[in-house]
């Protein structure tokens, strides 16, 4: 996919910041690709970009409207069609990461055909995947896993790739969700892959490589989440991680969107090792990424220190404090300089 930049990020009427995590992720990692944001009345999310109407965004060079909202079921609400059609009429392409395809909306499909604009559905890969085979392949892989969904797995993977590359290690971020694909320009949204082929898609995404090359794989969902554990397990088996990092949000007591309790970090470590050994007997945990966004600086440092003591592993907030401690552990475990 060649999605033209710069972007106008469409936030719709997102009910909270987390609902607009696709847009926020693009801003956090590719702010220079964006001209502004477009919000509907009642929107409670804000990426910090200037609020622009479509005409102003076009005047400032905007070429693609990105639907930056992630909602339950990945649906496109009917009332979003009008602003999307207006963007198309103004000469913009449209890209989305929803389960529902843009062209499944008749108004949007007709507008794109009339004005000769392109529609990109990055969640729907055109690649045909084989079933996973579980055969060990050369190269190293690291996977971020979570105590819940939306706890920072993508940000942790991106931060690790950046830090490892800065040290001279051969590392590549491998996107497994729509936001990651927008950020990296490549990848596959594994939650849109037919269940039988999830592990095969993960194998395709992280192929055989040089022995010292690291694929840093964006995790999805949680093995403990009743909605998304299937995707998480398929990704774990296909990625065959040599190392994994547990991502955790310490202020939650229930998993997002359901009534199930949040598992402990130790429960996640133990189950990830147990399940991961099916395709990589040497899998190991190398650190914990603690999302301290809702904590003060003092509280964040206290929680991280307590986590280090409890788990005997390096812990940090990748956004707040960086990931050097985890990269040090990777170097120690795998004999890197």
Automatic annotation (TrEMBL):
- The membrane spanning regions, by residue number, are none
Domain D-glutamate N-acetyltransferase-like C-terminal: where? 129-327
User: What Pfam families does the annotation carry?
Assistant: DUF1611, DUF1611_N
The D-glutamate N-acetyltransferase-like N-terminal domain extends over: 47-124
Lineage, top-rank taxon, reads: Bacteria
| Entry protein name | Protein often near L-alanine-DL-glutamate epimerase (Cell wall recycling)
């Amino acid at each position: 996919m060649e999605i033209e930049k710069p972007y106008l990020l469409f936030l719709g009427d997102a009910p909270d910041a987390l609902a607009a995590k696709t847009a926020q992720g693009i801003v956090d990692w590719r702010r220079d690709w964006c001209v502004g944001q477009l919000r509907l009345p009642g929107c409670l999310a804000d990426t910090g970009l200037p609020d622009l109407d479509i005409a102003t965004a076009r005047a400032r060079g905007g070429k693609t409207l990105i639907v930056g909202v992630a909602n339950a079921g990945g649906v496109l609400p009917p009332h979003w069609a009008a602003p999307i059609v207006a963007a198309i009429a103004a000469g913009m392409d449209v890209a989305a990461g929803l389960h529902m395809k843009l062209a499944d909306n008749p108004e949007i499909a007709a507008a794109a055909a009339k004005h000769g604009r392109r529609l990109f559905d990055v969640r729907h890969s055109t690649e045909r995947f084989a079933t996973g085979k579980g055969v060990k392949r050369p190269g190293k892989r690291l996977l971020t896993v979570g105590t819940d969904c939306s706890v920072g797995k993508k940000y942790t993977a991106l931060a690790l790739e950046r830090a490892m590359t800065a040290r001279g290690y051969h590392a590549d971020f491998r996107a497994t969700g729509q936001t990651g694909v927008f950020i990296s320009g490549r990848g596959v949204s594994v939650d849109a892959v037919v269940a039988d082929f999830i592990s095969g898609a993960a194998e395709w995404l992280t192929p055989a490589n040089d022995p010292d090359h690291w694929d840093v794989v964006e995790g999805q969902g949680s093995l403990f989440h009743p909605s998304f554990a299937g995707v998480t397990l398929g990704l774990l088996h296909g990625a065959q991680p040599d190392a994994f990092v547990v991502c955790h949000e310490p202020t939650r007591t229930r998993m997002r969107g359901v009534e199930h309790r949040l598992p402990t970090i130790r429960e996640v470590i133990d189950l990830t090792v147990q399940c991961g050994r099916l395709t990589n007997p040497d899998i190991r945990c190398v650190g914990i990424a603690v999302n301290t966004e809702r904590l003060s600086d003092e509280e964040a440092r206290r929680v991280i220190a307590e986590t280090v003591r409890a788990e005997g592993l390096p812990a940090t907030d990748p956004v707040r404090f960086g990931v050097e401690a985890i990269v040090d552990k990777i170097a120690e475990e795998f004999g890197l300089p």
